[in-house]
């Protein structure tokens, strides 16, 4: 797996097994070139700065004012982005390299544009409010005018009717009636009225409150407006009614005004005279036309301004984010005593040293600094960060491992083998080459369109699937492979590689066991013989096969985990871990479950009828008992006794010697040492990473012993439970196969048997949806999670500590994708 990343550019060939060698570096930079230096290091993206001002609050740091300034510019840019999204203007993509623009010019320009845009918005809001008020006024004039016109027509008709009655009456009655109808002008009541609009949902309550407040001394008429109108105050569309309220007296008027205000009813003036009404309608219509033209011109101007902002938005946004990141990083550097230099410390890969030095020199030249920057490597016993160089294929597998825990510095990386073992164990549970082809087609769409999809915003689930597209690709390829081994294509067997090795004795063969089959040809060359499918012995045969295969795969992967612990011990030069951890663990696991795996293979090769359950159980309960018909090879009893003895010996071997040896090593290392010898300062970083190095800390023997006791018990019990846990491979494979068979037989074949075209179409649709929904989505997720558990718990706990922290360099690479 070496050299996965390639050796192009500044980066050497990488080795995924071990993280990159890291060094703690110190950079002393003159104040005048500090900004440019940090900018060039951000472009390089290979230095993780340490915060040397952790004791200071954000407001006490050197560049707090500059960060506040950048924050204000970022606020203006967010305001522009919000305005552009409302107007439907999208900012243009900034594809070019970073153009050298001055931050002061950007700040002035943003201020001017914000002031101009705010003024346009304020004017537009005022004009829109006036327009909405005039629209409501026009509706009042129309509806109230109709009411007054109808009332006038009704009154004229009544008056003419009364006059016609008076002409036909007797002369004697005429003076008497005239006297009755004569009224004192001083006692006439003057009626007033108010017009306006009230929200429709409040209209009934509004009318009821008015009636109660004036004790019924009002007359109100309402008219429904069919279309929604925009409220001038809120700017939102609402359904309203036009009302006209008649009252008598100023006291009643004041009550009505207060109620209108409480209900949010907008009032508008109205004249009784028809001529004035027509004049007002003409004026309102003219003003509405003028306002509409003015608002349209204002919106066009606003859109042009937003498009101008959109042309430069991404460039300004990137510049502001970049400057803010630079000043945040500068705040992590400390001032020296002369206050003329900034001192920074951070982690970087060893291979990056020449590139960092070039960046420092270039920054000093470009900033016209009289003094160059100083770069030096520091010695430390602090644990460095973990840095694996990955590409688009290995990144998703590395993230699966990192989700459990980031590898300790230069610890063996499980990702190297996970790239193969993870999709393979998934495929063991998902084996069906028809389903594998479906997964492959879906994944190839993501892989072939990755350039286009990577620049788009996808949903949460789609984003997750796209990020793990190469994991799913490997899973689909291995599923096709295991599906060919199981000989299942949507649960249907096919004799792809050769005809079946067996033939039936008679017609009832499919209902019989394998006794009804005669072997007439050579053994089927690859995978399961298709003749097994559909027979009564299919389930017992496949159960036995998959269960034993699960144990073999589990023991093999656990052995790989223990071998990885040996690689770690050898790399960190820990002989204690080799002799008192790796060796007894290998002996214990293989004397029990390695022996079981050997028995399975022997039974397959010899065709023996021995009961392996009986062999393993009585190996512990009655080790001296004669095996009888369960004996698979000569001297098996002696071998079993030897393995049992070695397994029992390996438990105290793991438990007792290591704590005492560590105590002795600690005493020998610090015996009679009052002062430590001074070491050379020009050497690179030397970090004590093995578990036995504790420096001058107090050695707690009881703590070490309890830790070793827990570790031993965990391994001994885990050897049994972890082997049993691998049986999930058998269980999920069986479940997937049976579900697929049920969907095929009980849905598709049953629909076919009705000889009805409509039922067949329905059956095919149900089969497709069941296959996609249950087998290709739910079963995929289930097998994925189980494969994840087998790697995190059963495999990685044999060697992987995962207590490191990831290398997080200061870089501008992902700056454009980050949210503010």
Automatic annotation (TrEMBL):
Keywords, comma-separated and alphabetical: Coiled coil, Hydrogen ion transport, Ion transport, Membrane, Transmembrane, Transmembrane helix, Transport
Transmembrane segments: 424-448, 469-486, 549-567, 579-602, 638-656, 757-778
Keyword Nucleotide-binding applies: no
Main localization category: membrane
Subcellular location as annotated: Membrane
Topological type in the membrane: Multi-pass membrane protein
Pfam families, sorted: V_ATPase_I (PF01496)
Coiled coil location: 103-137
Key word Transport present: yes
Annotated family: Belongs to the V-ATPase 116 kDa subunit family.
Function: Essential component of the vacuolar proton pump (V-ATPase), a multimeric enzyme that catalyzes the translocation of protons across the membranes. Required for assembly and activity of the V-ATPase.
Name assigned to this protein: V-type proton ATPase subunit a
Organism: Brassica napus (Rape)
